[in-house]
Amino acid sequence: MAWRHFGLAVLLLFVLTATSLAAERLDGVPIVRRVDLDLVPPASEQRFWLKAGSTAAGQPYLVPVIVMRGAEDGPRLWLSAAVHGDELNGVRVVQRLFERLDPKTLRGTVIGLPVVNLPGVERHSRFFPLADDGGSLVDLNRVWPGAEGGADAARRFAHDVWTGVAERQVDLAIDLHTQTRGAVFPLFVFADFRDPLAERLARALGADMIKDDRGISGSLETAFMAVGVPAVTLEIGGPKRFDHDLIERTLEGLEALMIEQTMLAGMAPIPPEPFIGREEATLRAVTGGFAEILVDLGEDVVAGQMVARQVDLFGDPIATYTAPVAGRVLSIATDPLREPGAMLVRILRAEVD
Ligand SMILES: [Zn+2]
């Protein structure tokens, strides 16, 4: 009896230590500058508002962070969504994954950021808006890991998120995206196969297509890889909607990945073999005009096959487009309005042995 009381007291002390350092709260959720995973008690879930950056008027952004620590220590898995503010399927994936997980049966820790780019989400925008320069736009997925006292508010915001939760606290990372507005992807992974663990993560997710890709400077994936954390970028369809089928497939893929990483018990289904490529070919509009896309996502095309055409305001044909290489359709324009240079069809090239 006494021991049980002692145990409860220790647990209470743990909970108090983890949260009482943050004096401020919003709707009962502590507001912190740093989420210290070691202070989250085993077999529990905690929510935080992470103070990051500042608006031009001087108010901090409060980024939602959910941490679930399992009963047993194990890998620490990072899941972020909406680094691009119009890419919303990942938001629901992160939220629903925490509903499905149980800290009592979890091994390791899951760190979820359902919405990173708060100001972008509120403006229906891919970008992080600045008040500077008469209102300019920054691609937040080109500035990681940010910079203390960096050149603009976006870099400082990224720095606060990175140092506040990511830095030295993550073993595996998945950054959830979708195609940008006016276009769509299948369930598709960018991964750098030079890191065998990144390749394993990519394959475990059960995606339709994978691009073995060296990453982009300033992306969250590349920032994690640069500090030795295997990371992939997972693209979940198109922007500005909840695609329930793809959200469900992503949740199943994440659970399979967590089984593979022994964070969850059970048997992961063997995922269907994805289409893997290293090079893509993008067909871009040579002129402004309305586009008709003649192929579907995931369709195999041969070199020379007509894949799109454009008509002018009167409906007269003005351009046709043929596949320059054989491969599988990775992305198509969903918005017919295409200005010169806009993407029409992207093909992931078939590997030639
Ligand atoms: Zn994106």
What is the N-to-C order of secondary-structure elements (H for helix, E for strand)? HEEEEEHEHEEHEEEHEHEHEEEEEEEEE
Are any ligands bound, and if so which? zinc ion
CATH architecture designation of the largest domain: 3-Layer(aba) Sandwich
* CATH H-level superfamily title of the largest domain: Zn peptidases
General shape: globular
Helix share, percent = 10-25%
Widest sheet: strand ordering: 1-2-3-4-6-5-9-13-11-12-14
| Count of helix runs | 7
The CATH topology of the largest domain, please?
A: Aminopeptidase
β-strand percent reads: 25-35%
Radius of gyration: 22 Å
Rounded mean pLDDT score: 94
Specify the CATH class of the largest domain.
Alpha Beta
Q: What summary fits the major beta sheet?
A: 11 strands, mixed
Which residues sit in consecutive blocks of at least 5 with pLDDT less than 50? none
Number of domains: 2
Using DSSP, what is the number of strands? 22
* Structural class by SSE content: alpha/beta
**Distance between the terminal alpha carbons, to the nearest Å?**
70 Å
Characterization of this structure:
The chain has 353 residues and is α/β, with parallel strands linked by helices. It has two domains: 259 residues, Aminopeptidase, CATH 3.40.630.10; 71 residues, RNA polymerase II/Efflux pump adaptor protein, barrel-sandwich hybrid domain (OB fold (Dihydrolipoamide Acetyltransferase, E2P)), CATH 2.40.50.100. The protein has seven helices and 22 strands. An eleven-stranded mixed sheet has the order 1-2-3-4-6-5-9-13-11-12-14, with helices on both faces. Strands 10, 15, 17, 20 and 22 form a five-stranded antiparallel sheet that branches. Strands 19-18-16-21 form a four-stranded antiparallel sheet, with no helix packed on it. The longest helix has 19 residues. The radius of gyration is 22 Å and the shape is globular. The N and C termini lie far apart (70 Å). The mean pLDDT is 94. The structure holds zinc ion.
